[in-house]
Structure formats: structure tokens, C-alpha cells
Amino acid sequence: MILLVILGILVAFALWAVGIYNGLVTARNAFKNAFAQIDVQLQRRFDLIPNLVETAKGYLSHERGTLEAVTAARTAAQAGLSAASASPGDPAAMAELAQTQGALNGALGRLMVVVEAYPDLKANQNMMQLTEELTSTENRVAFARQAYNDAVMAYNNRREVFPSNIVAGMFSFAPAALLEIPEDKAEVREAPKVEF
């Protein structure tokens, strides 16, 4: 009889531990899936940028530095995304992604300020369509980032609360990092010097 009670307690403990482990795995997979949505939207954004730069080139031939800065920032942002995609939630990868996306946001902001100074370019149908698509994509990135950050918070909460933290520690469930892209308002608002 005592053996059955002990066996019952061990089975209950095993089921409890398996339930916690499965919950941690589910939460980890949820934030990785949420990051995959960010990846999709950022790739869409990266695909739009060359078209935007190409359209602006004809009008902004003397603004070559601005166009080159956007292209360079896009390349760096793609590298940051590749690093983060390989290890979603890794604090170093998320910091690199946030830094490169912040730089790209700043470069795109400067380009948009320059575009505002050229009525012909601003009125160009292709430029208007690309700008609208880029704005739509930026909104999608923001929503995807929010969903990712919510999933990371749920995962981190699950791995830190007692008694889940015991199982998380036993199976090396590492904390996941949020994706917080800095928005440099001063850099975006800085008006470029336009000379003819």
C-alpha cells in the first residue's frame, strides 16, 4: 500500500514536471514564431527600399550621400536580421538588430525629409505608392514587434515564476530579450541642407 502511494506521488510529480516543461517549450516556440513574423515584415521592408532609392535617384542626384546612407543602413539591417533570425531572443542578437533597425529608421527618416523638399518627386506616382507601401510595412513591423515582445514577456514570466523556474533551470531555458528599436527623433527631424 505504501509503495502504491509513493508510486502515485512520483507519477503525479512527473506529470507536473512534464506539464511545466511543455508549457515552457510552448512559450519559447510562441516567441520564436512571433519573431518569424517580424522577419517577414522586415524582409518586405528591405525589398521596398531599393525601389524607393531608385525612384528618388533621378530627382536627388546631388543628394547621393543620403541615398548611399539608406543603402548602407539597409545592408547593415539585413545582417542584423540574419543574426537575430539565427537566434531569436538572444540578447546580443536582439541588441544588434535593434541598433541596425534604428540606424535604418534614421536613414529613411532623413530620406523622407529630403523627399519633402522636392515637390516633383513627392508628386511622382511611383514614389507616392512606394511611400505608402513603406508606411504600411512600418505599421506591420510595429504590430509584429509588439506581438513578439508580448510573447517574450509571457515566456520570461513563465520561466521565472515558481515552481516553473526550477524546471527552467534544470533544462536550461535561457531568458529571451525584447526587441526595442530606438527611435532617434532628433536625427529624423534634422533638416538636410539642400543646395542647387
UniProtKB/TrEMBL annotation:
InterPro entries: LemA-like_dom_sf, MamQ_LemA. Its main location: membrane. It is a single-pass membrane protein. Keywords: Membrane, Transmembrane, Transmembrane helix. Coiled coil: none annotated. It holds the Pfam family LemA. It is found in: Membrane. PANTHER family: MEMBRANE PROTEIN (PTHR34478:SF2), PROTEIN LEMA (PTHR34478). Belongs to the LemA family. This is LemA family protein. It comes from Luteimonas endophytica.
